[in-house]
User: What shape does this take?
Amino acid sequence: MKVNKKSAMTWPAMLMLLCFTLIPLLIMFETSFRSDETGTLTLENYKKFFTNFMYIKLTGSTLLMSLLVTVISLLIAYPLAYIMAKKLKGLKNVILVLTIIPFFTNQLVRVYSWLIFLQDGGILNRLFMSFGLAENGLGILYTRAAVVIGLTHAFFPYMVVTIYMALERMDDSLIEASMSLGASKWTTFKDVIFPISMPGVMSGVTIVFVPCLGSFVEPRILGGVNGTVIGTVIEDQFFQLYGWNFGAAIAFVLFALVLIFMGAFGALGRRWETE
Amino acid sequence: MKKSSFRKVLVGALAVAVMFSMSACGNSTGTADGNSSGDSSAQSDSGKTKLYVVNWKDYGTDDKELMKQFEEENDCEIVNTYMQSEDDLLTKLKTSGSGEIDVCLPNCTILPAAIEGDLLEPIDTSKLTNFNSLFDRFKTQKECLGDDGQMYAVPVVWGSTAVAYNTDNVKEAPTTIKCLFDEQYKGKIAFRDDYNDAIMTAALALGQDPNNPSDLDAIKELLLKQKSLNKTYWQTGDEFSKLFASGQIDVGLMWSGQSATMKKDGEPIGFVVPEDGGIGWVDNFAIPKNSKNKELALKFIDYMISKDVQYKWSSNGGPAPSNQEAANAIDPDYAQSAAMDEASLNRLTFMEYRDDKTKQEWNDLWTEVKAS
Assistant: This one.
């Protein structure tokens, strides 16, 4: 067999994936079937998850929260990406850099900045008070709203980048054609621009939604007593209890959910495109 | 566009995401009670006897200044190995070979397992010249005693998790742990996000045995009621400091060591082990069965519980001393800020060993409270 030079170059990356993604995943998958008491293979960890309504409910509320963050991110990101791709010339690189800055910021620094910004007596609070809009504390920090704000800020740049990439490579003559055939601006957007940007939208949705599902730092720090999500439950299992078996089982339930949603988003994106 | 463009954009975007999300995160929980850092890796050049100690990092035995006298008097060298957790120490004890560990520092949560597993050497307390200076409670610390009535470990340092309060806003020191469940502090309470502390504290408030609570349903109900009274649950000591310093909380469940440190930093913080109790921990020195330097190890333990060493360690930001004479010598203000007195000590319930099943059960209860 002839060794293909090009494929040989991918071996280091493949080896990395194998050693640091696939094998650890398989180890954790096996762990999720281990019994706490006997160490033998069992389904009890999964049974515990599915028979305790609390975990189902918590997963549901985490899903809803992640969807909310995704929708808000989309509403913020789409106009920005559109303007960057179609309306701005030189300025768009500046905006792109500004959008990407949260990426460069350490997660804990970002979260603690929000904490200081949102807390009672914090910057936002004082701003509201100076305009007479609030009398005492705003009480935003340590609520679900604070978590949604923190997560949106952390992840919406991904959405901007993916949508921007999709819109950037779209042929502008399609818009001109649509307009010259008498379509209104709204029709052009609805029937031409948006469908073409759909792959970007859907990958943006995936990239925002998936990490939200597993997030635990933002909920823990910004959510306070209201910050319990499925991610913090997994974290507690691993770090408070050393309960790897059950922790791994919850993580794989979440992983399955992620795969289902990725499949759904992908299918949605493709359907839109082919229409 | 082709069908696969969704995948292409996704892969491209993921690549971008991976590139940019270089930041890693972790909850840093430093050793709150540590003092100076010491370099333990130094190898001796002479043929001195080596005493192998397993301990927390920055926890007394790696403080060169503190160890100097012992090393000189006994012409030996103390070699520290650090433990990551109590479970880690238990594993080390089970797997270490002969002569690998001479002294180690188990707390009450693993002592019963270590004693039952026949991993520790009984300690002849009559050979410890400083033993009689220990607080009475520690002379018969029940977790240190085996079924045969012999002592297998000697309490060295201790501390508590109890009530911290803002002395500017709370004029009278709280006398009951129920203050953490009191409507009058609504929105000004910071409870700790920890299943063990949460359940033990609620059990204390309900008058149940914190180590073997009789009615978990009542505890859950109380914690659910308490939930809305909190500003937030804190998890790292740093979180608590920030909440306290910015005046957002008036009372909270807190560690004695950190309260004392915060007071030293000028915060208006008071710390009490209230009359109905608090949660305690105690670290004990023990000698593994397979130590090859048992005589020297015993001398070392005697040195570590001596008034002088204990005083220096504790008053230098360390935890509370088990030696009563050392405790009495400490600056009263500082001792009070960490509740190092005997009355506080006698009110504590020390955390005991719990099996995995109980841990899961308690954690489930706490998760249900948090998730509701």
In short: Chain A touches chain B through 53 residues (CB under 8 Å). Chain A has 13 helices and no strands. Residues 53-87 of chain A form the longest helix (35 residues). Residues 33 and 42 of chain A are 5 Å apart (CA to CA).
